[in-house]
Write a structure and sequence with these properties.
Elements lengths: L10 E6 L4 H4 L28 E6 L5 E6 L1 E4 L4 E12 L2 E11 L4 E4 L3 E4 L3 E5 L1 E5 L3 E11 L4 E10 L4 E10 L8 E11 L4 E11 L2 E12 L7 E2 L3 E5 L3 E5 L2 E6 L2 E10 L3 E11 L3 E13 L4 E14 L3 E10 L4 H5 L4 H4 L2 E11 L3 E12 L12 E14 L5 E13 L11 H4 L5 E13 L1 E3 L2 E17 L10 E13 L1 E4 L3 E14 L37 E14 L5 E12 L20 E7 L5 E10 L4 E14 L2 E11 L5 E3 L2 E2 L17 E2 L4 E15 L2 E10 L4 E12 L3 E11 L6 E11 L8 H9 L9 H5 L11
Parallel strand pairs: 1-49
Antiparallel strand pairs: 1-18, 2-3, 3-5, 4-5, 5-6, 6-7, 6-8, 7-10, 8-9, 9-11, 10-11, 11-12, 12-13, 13-14, 14-15, 15-16, 17-20, 18-19, 19-21, 20-21, 21-22, 22-23, 23-24, 24-25, 25-26, 26-27, 27-28, 28-29, 29-30, 30-32, 31-32, 32-33, 33-35, 34-35, 35-36, 36-37, 37-38, 38-39, 39-40, 40-41, ...
């Protein structure tokens, strides 16, 4: 399921039981205190007493039958009466009893009194029974434990065949210890096939705290950690947009490296959704296909659907092929079927296929890349361009005994395409404004540099030459169809490393200086296909272009200065503190600007700072700052503070602030277009309205998972928009975790549409350990919502994979 689709329901009661998630991803379930199943090695054979009878007979398939006892009586009919600490051993099977009758002809054993039987899967004690290598075992009023699982039970009768099939009648089953038997499964009959590792139950009932909560005529479950095919448990829920819902998934274990989950969902308001997921993996290929298909939505009166394919294939000769593509039937799909703010924050979904080559020197990429626009508030000219195709190649080589001379190149050829209604008509406003422009771009940049380094210093001077050529269609009237740009680049990068050791700390001071020169080229005639201005951070200080994308190359006559200091633990090298401060100083203010970008006139960039603190075992903090000295105001701030004394105990505080870096310019009936960049000192176009920079984001967030008492945990999360004086999301809940069961109750409110509509809901989840403690939907939500939270015995810890759960596929 895609990460943006958190599994959540406005109202949900989840009861995952035997054969549900556990059937697809069985776990090594934790044992309750004092309820350990019979997993210890078989009891050692007692030392023979003075009178010992030992009989060794060849078995049918498990080797010799070894019998020992304190007393023996041989009867004329061939029956051997063994009394006193009788132990029968055959292969990996052991029987203990006070008295047994052994028939040497049939090698059968009969006991009228107490009897104990053990094998690698099963431990049974009964009032009596029979056993033979050819006929199996038959026990009366049996108590049993599954040795490989924290599970036990009782049966009126138990039969074991030589083929390893166990049949039980009148069964009571649980994973709880005797002192805390909160739940139990009662069934008329249960069959355990120890060879195929499959169990089936008929006429089953689940009791919780003495109350029956579920009846099932038939169910199937695994006996080990292997996956198996079968129906998963149904999920019930309610959604304010889709109504009541029920899903009954079916899991198909196609092969050890492939599976499929078919999960139809019935919505009371919308109809039936035929969803599913299939996965496959081998040594050189792995992928996943997810889909939903609603043939007819009773609300929208149309078919609805979603499909997503991810696949990575390792090919010979250092090639790799990958696909990451998703498509939905309509722009409102995520708002209707997503279960959180991700339904409104998904603006585009990607459809990408790529063939890549990598070796020691070369990188070659061939891609087909396009986006489906989900945000219906965007105008057609705001949709991203498709890149059909994109071809990129780069190479890196070095010469010299220490590879002092590095040289290579970067290149790219891309076809940018976008469909806008009305384009192609030379009189259309979109075409006159330049929105219809599409076409090819070729960009190449050979480069060379020296790498001179020694103890505590490095010097890296470098040069490059960049050439860009366009071949365009649907350009504005009079515009150049083949614009181009060429320019040289020169840089000088250098740094020092100062170190000092104290008794238990290692301190560094790392100043760095980077000079960049790029001559000015007027680029207003070039289109804007994929170029934007990234957020400024310490990494951006040392790039040779302050833009991302090849449509603009900023002129530069500047020096970047930054200093980093680290505090390390001398014993293990663990970083306790890292701080970086930096800024760019312009000898000449940049003249190349994006539409609406504010020109610098103060000879310096924004000031950036980063701080990462992990000095305490329990506390950690991250601080990022971008300060605009020209405007005398904060541009961006992000603070994350975490207190985590234990995996299940964590408190997070976050503050986020971001201010728009582009000046908004509104013209009558249009917006500022490429070619209309406001140069420093330029007059504002007639009728234009200049707006001050606007605040995009100012939020505070707090989240916590905290144990408040033995077995009790609470969860909270809140996101508050300081700018809008509004809560964007609220969540609160609690969990009670007993030895063999767990219950969670939570309530949540969040913005669910782009118009600000709020949705509220609650969820209730009951898990019965051993039957449904794997693939919890609420575990996934809590780990995403509360940074740093790790649920006890989480599925991710035990498997490293997500399991098909009862939640509808999203």
């Amino acid at each position: 399921m895609p990460p943006q689709m958190l599994r959540w329901r406005s109202f949900r009661f989840v009861l995952l039981l035997l054969g549900s998630v556990a059937s697809a991803r069985a776990a090594d379930l934790p044992l309750c205190p004092g309820s350990s199943p019979t997993q210890a090695s078989a009891p050692q054979k007692p030392a023979p007493a003075k009178a010992v009878a030992r009989v060794r007979k060849p078995g049918v398939e498990d080797g010799l039958v070894d019998i020992s006892s304190e007393h023996a009586e041989y009867r004329p009919d061939g029956t051997l009466i063994l009394k006193g600490n009788v132990h029968v051993h055959q292969g990996d099977r052991d029987i203990h009893a006070d008295e047994v009758q052994y028939n040497k002809n049939s090698q059968s054993i009969r006991s009228q009194g107490g009897l104990e039987y053990q094998d690698p899967l099963l431990h049974v004690t009964g009032d009596g029974g029979n056993y033979s290598p050819t006929g199996g075992a038959d026990f009366r009023t049996a108590q049993f434990d599954l040795r490989q699982r924290a599970a036990r039970g009782s049966a009126n009768a138990l039969q074991l065949t030589p083929e390893g099939v166990i049949s039980l009648q009148g069964v009571r089953f649980t994973t709880c210890p005797k002192a805390e038997e909160a739940w139990s499964l009662k069934a008329a009959s249960v069959t355990l096939d120890t060879r195929s590792k499959i169990g089936t139950a008929r006429s089953a009932r689940v009791d919780f705290e003495g109350l029956p909560i579920l009846y099932l005529p038939w169910l199937s479950f695994p006996l080990d950690n292997e996956r198996k095919s079968g129906f998963l448990f149904p999920t019930l829920g309610n959604n304010s947009r889709s109504g009541a819902e029920v899903s009954v998934p079916y899991y198909w274990n196609i092969a050890p490296n492939a599976d499929l989950t078919f999960e139809p969902i019935l919505y009371s308001r919308r109809g039936a959704d035929l969803g599913g997921e299939t996965r496959f993996m081998d040594a050189n290929d792995h992928g996943e296909l997810n889909w939903n298909y609603l043939p007819y939505d009773d609300v929208t009166h149309a078919s609805r659907g979603r499909v997503q394919l991810t696949n990575t294939m390792e090919l010979p000769d250092n090639f790799r092929f990958s696909i990451n593509a998703q498509n939905v039937s309509d722009r409102s799909y995520f708002e209707d079927f997503a279960q959180g703010p991700e339904g409104t924050s998904t603006a585009f979904i990607e459809q990408n296929a790529a063939l890549r080559f990598r070796d020691e020197h070369w990188k070659i990429d061939g891609e087909l890349d396009r986006y489906q626009t989900i945000d219906y508030t965007l105008e057609p000219f705001e949709h991203p361009y498709a890149r059909l195709p994109r071809l990129a190649a780069s190479a890196d080589y070095a010469l010299g005994s220490a590879e002092q001379l590095a040289y290579g190149f970067e290149s790219e050829i891309v076809n940018f395409d976008r469909s806008i209604p009305g384009c192609g008509n030379t009189a259309a406003p979109f075409q006159q404004d330049g929105f219809c422009t599409r076409g090819w771009r070729v960009d190449a940049m050979p480069r060379a540099s020296l790498d001179i380094n020694g103890a505590g210093y490095f010097i890296r001077p470098g040069v490059a030459w960049r050439a860009t050529q366009y071949e365009l269609q649907d350009v504005a009237s009079g515009a150049d169809r083949s614009p181009s740009r060429t320019l040289p680049l020169a840089s000088f990068d250098s740094g020092l490393m100062f170190e000092r050791d104290t008794q238990d700390r290692h301190i560094t001071l790392e100043p760095r200086l980077y000079y960049l020169y790029v001559p000015y080229r007027n680029q207003d005639q070039l289109p804007l296909f994929d170029t934007t201005l990234p957020d400024l951070d310490p990494v951006e200080l040392f790039r040779n272009n302050r833009y991302v994308g090849a449509d603009r190359v900023s002129d530069a006559n500047q020096v970047s200065l930054a200093v980093t200091s680290r505090l390390l633990n001398s014993a293990d090298g663990k970083q306790l503190l890292s701080a970086t401060l930096g800024e760019i100083y312009y000898f000449t203010d940049p003249r190349v600007l994006l539409p609406g970008e504010i020109a610098r006139t103060d000879g310096r960039s924004d000031f950036v700072a980063q701080l990462a603190l992990t000095a305490s075992h329990d506390w950690s903090a991250d601080f990022n700052l971008q300060w605009n000295p020209q405007a005398g105001q904060m541009q961006r701030t992000q603070i994350n503070l975490q207190y985590k004394p234990a995996p299940q105990a964590v408190v997070n505080f976050a503050y986020r602030f971001a201010r728009d870096v582009l000046e908004e310019v509104e013209l009558p009936g249009q917006v500022l277009q490429p070619g209309q960049t406001l140069q420093p000192g330029a007059a504002v176009p007639p009728g234009a309205l200049l707006l001050p920079p606007s605040e995009l984001l100012q939020q505070a967030e707090i989240s916590s998972a905290w144990p408040v008492a033995r077995a009790w945990n609470v969860f909270v999360r809140g996101i508050y928009s300081i700018k809008d004086h509004k809560m964007l999301e609220r969540f609160g809940g609690f969990e009670y975790r007993a030895c063999c069961w767990r219950i969670r109750l939570g309530a949540r409110s969040f913005v669910s549409t782009r118009y600000g509509t709020e949705s509220t809901g609650i969820y209730l989840q009951l898990e019965l350990t051993g039957l449904a403690s794997v693939g919890s939907a609420s575990d996934s939500f809590l780990m995403d919502a509360i940074r740093g939270y790790t649920p006890p015995e989480s599925p991710a810890q035990r498997f490293g994979v997500s399991s098909p759960s009862g939640s509808p596929p999203q």
